[in-house]
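[job 4471] stage=fold_predict status=RUNNING
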Amino acid sequence: MKKINVVIVDDHPIVLLGVRELVERDSRFCVVGEAVSSPGLIEILEQQTVDIVITDFNMPTESPYGDGFKLIEYLSRQFPLTQILVLTMISNPLILTRLHELGVVGVIQKNQLHDEIEKALESIARQTRYKSLEQAPTSVIKSNAAVEERFARLSPKEFEILRLFIAGKSVTDIAHSQNRSTKTISSQKISAMRKLEVESDQDLLSYCHQSNIFN
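[job 4471] inference complete, writing structure tokens
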């Protein structure tokens, strides 16, 4: 029986090791490569046939391929026969919906990895649909439902801009990585801040870190 080739992508070595161990428990799958960034992933995909990419949504973005939506869109265009399974801590329903629209075979919350990876791989092996579990509420959301409600107001593009901004990118950096104008990115960032009801960059950083949305 032909093995199903898997590549794992995450910028945290401990996560790579853990996912590899979970994947290799199933003899139908073979981990043929690991990468800590999108350029490393693309290099592997250009050198050999890969059936499944298991990738983190948030990774270093100093590359033309980026991460997040930009990377998923690139993989879907350039490697349409490769299935994509996304690992993330993001629970925003708009973001999850957009990922499925881009054709990923599943989204696994990192805090549910051990419980869900086997189910996801089983579905992929049987060529059936994997249904992702809903993200369990965090303590912040339990104590303040308004946090989730405010983030739900964001469009996928606004959410992506905030994610990159919180990761340390400037508006100019984000504009360059997204191939858009600085003015457009700035306007969308301001719109997102209004929806979150914060007035300054410092308040925005504090709000996002305290809500644990991007961790």
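[job 4471] summary: The domain at 4-125 is CATH 3.40.50.2300 (Rossmann fold).
[job 4471] exit 0
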